[in-house]
Amino acid sequence: MTPVATPFFFYLLSGLAVLGGVLVITRRNAVHSALALILTLLAVAGLYLMLYAPFVAGVQIIVYAGGIMVLFLFVIMLVNIERTVKERQFNRIWPVGLAASGALLVLFVSVLVKGKALFPERGLPLPEADNTQKIGEMLYGNYMFAFEIASLLLLVAILGAVIMTKKKI
Amino acid sequence: MLEITTFHYLVVAAALFVLGVIGVLTRRNVVVVLMSIELILNAVNLNLVAFSRMWGGLHGQVFAIFVVVDAAAEAAVGLGILIAFFRNKETINVDEIDLLKW
């Protein structure tokens, strides 16, 4: 099945993603930043769907927009935001940071302009009907060891988060 | 209209990455810095999935799932450190976290 109006949806979703990114780094209130980040995450999930990656899009919505952002909002609620909203939002060396980011942007632009010819015009066709099944087979086949390491990493992260936030150990 | 190629996705990912770097380097609020790191990881994920589409394999998508796992672990540990620090020093500004400075 070929998608309809691909350029329109691509420009809409990427515009929303970049707009959300700009709002994340400019808003004074951290809650507004979190909501803008949710906008970006959902737009990027839409871009994944356009790239024939429905499973990654679902993981993005469930884990990122559903799990990680709830964690962020809880932490914003625990630390007081009334004081930080009134304070200076950017650190003293922000011109240096901005210059470094500009240098990175120049690097990206030069790489993309010079390497544009390397990318083929059309992507190879991907199977979309059994995408989830294929990814599952790869996770439990090729990437078995990495999968186990990832589960261990999550266990360590859970233990670390619980121990660090305890008042008395 | 023009056809959308891998190059377009790379441009969007580069824009998101630079926005995230700007947030990390200039903001004072630690929560916003952590959110900017999430932006950077999303840009990388978009690149991985776009290249996965370009080469017609699924390895990029599998790797993107591992990046999401890492992002979850990083957010949990980072926010845990933030809460522990807030309990000690009553601040969440990056430039006031200077206990090791003399």
Provide a descriptive summary of the structure in words.
The complex is a heterodimer of chains A (169) and B (102). With 169 residues, chain A is mostly helical. Chain A has 2 domains: 1-88, NADH-ubiquinone/plastoquinone oxidoreductase chain 6, subunit NuoJ (Four Helix Bundle (Hemerythrin (Met), subunit A), Up-down Bundle), CATH 1.20.120; 126-169. Chain A has 7 helices and no strands. In chain A, helix 1 (6-26) runs antiparallel to helix 2 (30-50) and helix 2 packs antiparallel against helix 3 (54-78). Chain A starts with 5 loop residues before the first helix and ends with a helix. By secondary structure, chain B is an all-alpha fold. Chain B has a domain at 28-94: Orthogonal Bundle (Helix Hairpins), CATH 1.10.287. Helices cover 76% and strands 0% of the residues of chain B. Chain B contains 3 helices and no strands. In chain B, 56% of the residues are buried. The chains are: A mainly alpha (169), B mainly alpha (102). At the A-B interface, helix 1, helix 2, helix 3, helix 5 and helix 6 of A face helix 1, helix 2 and helix 3 of B.
